[in-house]
């Protein structure tokens, strides 16, 4: 099994994007969003990008398969994680390229379709999919 770092490197290479690797972390606390692209400024004023992926949402094994992620049908947890990582890497590419809007704008939509054939600019895995509460 590939590590997240190896998977991200493969995605970047396959996309033809010559970008430096950024930290990718699993987060046990993220429960409303499957993935986030985050940029934080350090004490010296330097910006540091990072991708965070949700353990509670992406390591679930009780899904009814297939599920849609970024508008694509996924049949296993590994493909779900790959689609989320592709999505977050689009944000990273736009930010790294100096785009004024590295959110879900037209440039994002074009990269998502042209590079990964994503049918949607949102993950589709998040708060709308939370497990029902038990009393």
Keywords:
135 residues; alpha+beta; 19% strand; three-stranded mixed β-sheet; Zincin-like; 5 strands; disordered C terminus
Q: How would you portray this structure in words?
A:
The protein is of the alpha+beta class and 135 residues long. It has a single domain, classed as 2-Layer Sandwich (Zincin-like). It contains four helices and five strands. The strands form two sheets. It has a three-stranded mixed beta sheet. It has a two-stranded antiparallel sheet with strand order 4-5.
Briefly say what this structure is.
The chain is α+β, with helices and mostly antiparallel strands and 135 residues long. 35% of the residues lie in helices and 19% in strands.
List the helices and strands and how they pair.
Elements: H1 4-15, E1 24-27, E2 35-41, E3 47-54, H2 55-58, E4 67-69, E5 72-74, H3 77-96, H4 106-116
Parallel strand pairs: 1-3
Antiparallel strand pairs: 2-3, 4-5
